[in-house]
Every structure is written in structure tokens, then in C-alpha cells.
Amino acid sequence: MKKIFALVGLCIISYTGIKAQEPIEVSEDSLQIGSSSIPALSVRIPEVEYEKTLKSWIKTLESGTKSKVVTENKQMSIFGAKVKPISDNPVNVYSTLLNEDDGVNLKVAFEEKKDEYVQMSSGEYPKARDYVFNFAKDQYVEVVSDQVRTEENKLRDLERDLASLEREQEKLERSTRSNKETINTERDRLAILNNELESISGTIIEDSSQPAGMGASEIKEDYVKDLEKKKKKTLREIETSEKKVSKAEKEIEDAEREIPKTVEDQENLRSRVSEQEAVVQKFVAKLNTIKEYK
Fold it and tell me: Which of 87, 118, 124, 232 has a CB 3.0–4.6 Å from the CB of 110, allowing a cystine?
């Protein structure tokens, strides 16, 4: 049960810690390169990790080209990058990625020709805006998708624990039914065995009290010995049946104590499952909203 209560704690934390989706907005900005300030685009990407986003951004810039991103004083540059969504010709890209509270800020400048940068007034600005926007959106979607998977895993764990408790209850109830049948069977058997014991004991007493006839003493002695053996065998069978009855009664008693606890734990878990389903639905709704961003 420790595992179950730990998962319940996780559900409560998740439910109260859901962050609403934030917008992704690309705006015109400037980027300081050395002593020069050049036109750039800026976007804040919510909730993402800095290192992971940095690797993704470098991988995106280097995709489809042999050029490599060079980083100096936290400023990245790549020359001759193939950014097809913006231009069929290679472009130079300058960028910075700054770590912020609960997200990062990406600034990007695209140089189509020497000292000619994509800016609001240029025809390529909408393409550049979409390029930066889509990168930011993809990063945000990936983060929230991970959040959805995490919450779905918590839900599956809770559902597995609930199913385990349901199986345990069924097992206890089957055991109780089986033990009741055992008790009825063994009590019927005990009635028969006790009658046999009474009959054997009476025969032994009767035969032992009568004198044996001439030449019959050995036969009588063997007969009494056989009766004594049968009596001992019957006593052992009675003891075995009584132990079975006692064991079955003990198991029924234990089950009757355990079943109410199991039922109560199931009710608590069903409540937690419902809460976690609501958590998952909230994260899925958040993800779907972000996927609709344009």
C-alpha cells in the first residue's frame, strides 16, 4: 500500500501544479553582434529546458548543410546555412538563446546578403517569422507531450494498483467460498469418523471384556490389535479433518478482516484514478491548444 499512497501524493502535486499554456509570439527585435545592432526576430519558448532547446536549435540550423554553428560569448553564428523555408539561397544566421525562469528566449537574425537582414519591411519576414515560430512551437509541443506521457503513466500505475486490489478481493472471496465448502465437507466427514470411532471403541471394550474360548486367544488378540490399529487410523483422520476445519476457519476470519480494508482501499484508489484522469485531460487539452497555435 505504500506504493499506492506515494502515487496518490504525485496525483495531488500534479493536479495543483498544472501550468496553463502560454502563447508563442514572434516579435521584431534587434541582436547585438559585436558593436553592431542588427534586425532580428525574438520569441519566448515556455517551460522548455535550456540545454535541450540549445541542442535542438543547433541541430535545426546545421540540418542539410556541412556548415557548423560557432558559439562565441554565448552568441551563435552559422554561415551558408540552408534555411529552405526562408530562402533557396544559403543565408547567414546569428542567434542567442537566453535561459529564463520557466523557459528560454531565442533571438535570431537572418542575413541574406552582406548587411542585408530579414526584417519587418522585407518580403521574407513572414517566412522567417513562421520558421522561428514553428521551431518554438515544436519545442513547446515536445515538452507538453512529455508532461502528458508522465501523467498518463501515473494514471496507468494507479489503474494497475486498483486492478491488483480488485484481484486480491476476488482471491479472498474465492478462498472464503472454498474454505466454507471445506468446512462443510470435513464436518460431514468428522460425523462419519466419530461414529466409526465410537463403534470401534465399543467393539474393543466388548471383546476385551469377554474371555476367549479354547484355542481362540491368539485369534482374539490379533482381532483386537486390528481394531486398535483401525482406531488409531480413525483418530489420525479425525485430527487431520479437525486441523483442516481449524485452518479454514482461520483463513475465513483473516479474509473477513482483510476484505473491508481492500474494499476501502479500492474506493480511495478509484477516487484518485478519477482525479488523475482529470489531470491527464487537462494536460491533453493544453497540448491540443498548443498544437493549434498559428
Answer: 118
| Alpha-carbon span 109 to 119, nearest angstrom | 9
DSSP characters over 183-243: HHHHHHHHHHHHHHHHHHHHHHHHHHHSPP-TT-HHHHHHHHHHHHHHHHHHHHHHHHHHH
Is the alpha carbon torsion for 154, 159, 160, 165 positive or negative?
positive
Query: Is 20 in a helix, a strand, or coil?
Result: coil
Residue type at 165? Answer: L
Q: Distances from the Cα of 165 to the Cαs of 11, 170, 171, 251, 294, in angstroms?
A: 19, 9, 10, 18, 46
Q: What is the mean pLDDT of each run of 10 residues along the chain (294 residues)?
A: 43 61 96 91 98 97 94 94 93 97 96 93 94 98 98 98 97 97 95 91 75 59 82 93 95 96 97 98 98 96
Which of 277, 14, 16 minimizes the C-alpha distance to 158? 277
Distant-in-sequence, close-in-space partners of 106: CB < 8 Å, separation ≥ 6: 42, 43, 44, 45, 53, 57, 95, 96, 97, 132, 135, 136
Separation between Cα atoms, residue 115 and residue 118, nearest integer Å: 10
- Residue 122 is classified by DSSP as S
β-strand partners of 100: 103
- The 3-state DSSP class for residue 99 equals strand
Domains and CATH numbers, the chain: 24-147 (3.30.530), 152-291 (1.10.287)
Residue 45 phi, psi dihedral angles, 5° rounding: -110, 110
Report how far residue 35's alpha carbon sits from residue 94's, in angstroms, rounded to the nearest whole number.
14
- CA torsion sign, 197 to 203 to 205 to 208? negative
- Report the C-alpha dihedral over residues 39, 43, 48, 49, rounded to 10 degrees: 20
List the one residue out of 31, 222, 7 whose CA is nearest residue 128: 31
